[in-house]
Design goal:
Elements lengths: L2 H17 L2 E6 L5 H13 L3 E5 L1 H10 L16 E5 L5 H9 L7 E7 L2 E4 L4 H5 L4 H34 L1
Antiparallel strand pairs: 1-3, 1-4, 2-3, 4-5
Helix pairs in contact: 1-3
Length: 167
Amino acid sequence: MNKQEKTQEIERLVEVLNANTKIYLADCSSLTVEKVGQLRRSCFEKKVSMQVVKNTLLAKALERANDSKLAELIPALKGETALMLTEVSNAPAKIIKEFRKGGDKPKIKAAYVEEMIFMGDESLDALAGLKSKNELIGEVIGLLQSPIQRVIGGLENKFKDSEEAAA
């Protein structure tokens, strides 16, 4: 890769980083080609973009990104790095957790989710437990509907009781 190609790749990575608020860095080294293919298929099914990147280029892109917090991910750039991008904050963590049932890889190196930095593989459970936007909206709607349903149920019971008393 010549200097011009490296510059173009860094610019592309900066654009990608600026366009995403859910960024995962994973270690996929020592996975067989077959396992990497399975992981990529799982990512594709869950609408997670996964690409292996050069650490030096990604480090420069992280430094140049609009959000200065992204630079905190640079210490995690050791060994082979897979960049995972998604719209659903917990999707990559769930994919990795499910995939690891057969072994100890892939591992999470670091993650940037909704302006928060997570470092190390020990954050996998916390990341997998994050609620997506749709899950949170569903919970709020459920909480709002609950009191209304109780009032309606109480009124229906009172109406039935008054009909039975009149009969």
